[in-house]
C-alpha cells in the first residue's frame, strides 16, 4: 500500500530525514519508535502533506500513485489519515460540522452520494461509543477546552468516522494516563482490518502492549537503523535508546 | 472638461435651488433647522489628516466630485427589491430610491394602533408635533460638518414612531437603494426612530446599490429609546464598491432602556460610520456590534462613542474586521464614563484578521473613566489566517478554499450569532461562504 523510497526531508535548511525506506502492506501495523529529534513526527507530517517540510530526494508511492504530488486534502480523500500529536483548537467550528464537511467532501471525491444530516448523525453516534465520547461534545468547537486525553480521543473518533485505508498515529499516547491509552488503543484495534494499515509513531513502548504491531522500526538521526517484530519494542524498553545509539547501523527491511 | 467646484462652495451655492424644489413641503420649523445647519456647515472646516478623529481617513477622494443633489426619478422593480429581503424575511418594507420615498415599492403589514412607519416628509405634514419634539435634538450634529450638511439638505428619510406600550412584532426593513447610473448623486437620508415607553421594535437600515457607480450617501439617523423600551437595530451596507458613505447614528437611551445594534458592512470606496450612544438615565443596556469585510482598496472607518452619563448602565461593544488585498480599516471605540456614573460596566473588543500583506487596520480604544466604582475593559487583536487550523481541516479532506471559508465564518461567528434575526444570520453565512470558497 505504501512504499517510501530513500526519502530525504529538509526543514529550514536542516536535513531531518536522511534516506527513509519503508514498505507497508494492507492489514499490517507498523510501529516507528525512536528518541526525541529522530524525525518520527516529521515522517508522519510529510506523509500527510504539511508544506513546511521540503522533500529533497526520494519518492513515496501510495497504492501505486505518487503521494508527494497530491495536496493534503487529496491525500485524505485517497484514504490517508493523520492523528496529530498536538491537535489544534479551532474556535467557532463545531466537531460535528467539521466531520460532516469532511465526510461529504471525501464521498464526493470518490463518486459517492453525500450523507444528509440524519444519516450522518446515525453514523457518528455509532462511532462515538467506540472512544467513549458523549453527545455534548459534538456541538463544541473542535478541541476547544479539551483535555489532552479528550483531544487524542477526538483524533481516534475522527479516524473512526472517516474510515481511512492508511492511518498514521503521531505520538497519540504521549501525555496520556493508562486509562486514556486503553480507550485510544481499543478504538484503534476495533478499526483494524485486512484492508487497512496503521503506522504508529511512538516514543514509549507502553502503547504497543495494547496496539500490537506486526513490525517495529527504530528511527535514529533521520534513518531507520533497526527493524524487527514486536519483540524489538520490548528489547528497546529494557535496554533504552542508548542501546541503539551505541550499536551498529544495520538496517533490516520490514 | 468642467473644473470641479470646491466641495463646500458647491453645497452652499445649491441650497437655494434645493429649498425651492421642496415646494409646499417646507414648513417654518424645518426651514429654520435647515438654515441653521447650513450656517454651521459654512463655518465648520472639512476634516483633514491632522484632526485626531480623521487621522487615518483621508477624505480627499470624496472632494474630487460635485454630486448632484436633485436627480431625475428612478424606477426600481419589486423583483430587484425582493433580492435584498434576506431570503423572504417577513417584514414591514419601506423603500427609498435615490433618497426619495417610493410608495410603489413599500408595503406595511398590520400594525398596532398609533404606530407610524413611513417617510419623514409625510411625518412633517402629518405628525408635526412628534417631529418638532424629537428631530435634530442632538446638538452634537451641529458641530459635525457632514451631519450639518445632511441636516441642511433634509428632504426625506425613514420615520418610525411607536407609541407607549406598543410592540411591533415584525422587523421594519428600510431599504435605501441608489441607482443613478453614471450620474454622480448625493443622497442624504435623515432618519428618525422613536420608541415610546415600554415599546419594542426591530429596525433594519439597509443601504444597497445594484451598480458599481460613484455616489455619496450622507446619512444621519436619530434613535430615541424611551424608558424600558427595547430596540433591536441592524445596519447593513451592501453598496457599490465605488460609493462614498458617511453616516452618523445618534442613540439616546432613557431609563432601563435596551438598545442592540449590529452594523454589517461590505464597504464602499470610503465608509465612515459614527455611532454614538448616550445613557440619559440609569439601568440602560447598550450593545454595539459590527462586522466589516473589505478588500481591494476599500477604506472602512468606524468611530463609536458610548457615553455613560448616568450610573448603573452596561455597554458591550464587539467589532470584527476581515481585511484583504490593500484594504484599510479603522476602529476607534470611545467609552466615556462620567464622574457620577458609578457601577458602570463597559466592555469593548475588536478582533481583526488580515488576509494579505498589504491590508492595514488601525485600532484604538479610548477609555475616559472619571468614576471609580466601575468595570471597564478593552481588547484588540490583529491576526492572520491560522495555518495550523487550515492544515488540520485539509488533512481531513476539506479543500483549501473551503477551509478558508470555514475559518473566516468561524472568526466572524461571535458577532453573527448575536444577531437575533435568523434570516440575516443565514444570509451572512452564505455571503461569507461564497466570498471565500471562490
Task: Give the structure's gist in a few sentences.
The complex is a heterodimer of chains A (254) and B (438). Chain A contains nine helices and twelve strands. Chain A is α/β, with parallel strands linked by helices.
CATH top level of chain A? Answer: Alpha Beta
CA gyration radius of chain A, whole angstroms? 18 Å
Integer average pLDDT of chain B:
94
Give the low-pLDDT segments of chain B. none
Chains forming the largest contact: A-B, 31 and 23 residues
**Proportion in β-strands of chain A:** 25-35%
- The assigned structural class of chain A equals alpha/beta
Order of helices and strands of chain B: HHHEEEHHHEEEEEEEEEEEEEEEEEHHH
Can you identify the CATH superfamily of chain A? Answer: P-loop containing nucleotide triphosphate hydrolases
> What is the CATH third-level topology name of chain A?
Rossmann fold
Number of helical regions of chain B? 9
Number of alpha- plus pi-helical segments of chain A: 9
Structural category of chain B: alpha/beta
CATH architecture descriptor name of chain A = 3-Layer(aba) Sandwich
Instruction: Give the amount of beta strand of chain B, in percent.
Output: 35-45%
Largest sheet of chain A, in brief, is: 6 strands, mixed
Overall mean confidence score, pLDDT of chain A: 89
> How do the strands of the widest beta sheet of chain A line up side by side?
6-9-10-3-11-12
> If you compute it from the alpha carbons, what radius of gyration of chain B comes out, rounded to the nearest whole angstrom?
21 Å
Largest sheet of chain B: 10 strands, mixed
Provide the fold topology.
The complex is a heterodimer of chains A (254) and B (438).
Chain A: E1 2-11, E2 14-24, E3 29-33, H1 40-48, E4 54-62, E5 65-66, H2 72-77, E6 80-83, E7 90-94, H3 95-109, H4 117-130, H5 136-139, E8 141-142, H6 148-162, E9 166-170, H7 178-191, E10 197-202, E11 215-220, E12 223-228, H8 231-239, H9 242-246
Parallel strand pairs in A: 3-10, 3-11, 6-9, 9-10
Antiparallel strand pairs in A: 1-2, 1-4, 4-5, 7-8, 11-12
Chain B: H1 7-21, H2 28-43, H3 78-82, E1 92-97, E2 100-101, E3 116-119, H4 120-126, H5 128-134, H6 145-152, E4 158-162, E5 172-177, E6 186-187, E7 190-195, E8 200-208, E9 216-225, E10 230-238, E11 244-253, E12 258-265, E13 270-279, E14 285-294, E15 299-308, E16 314-323, E17 328-337, E18 344-354, E19 360-369, E20 374-384, H7 387-394, H8 400-416, H9 422-437
Helix pairs in contact in B: 1-2, 2-6, 4-5, 7-8, 8-9
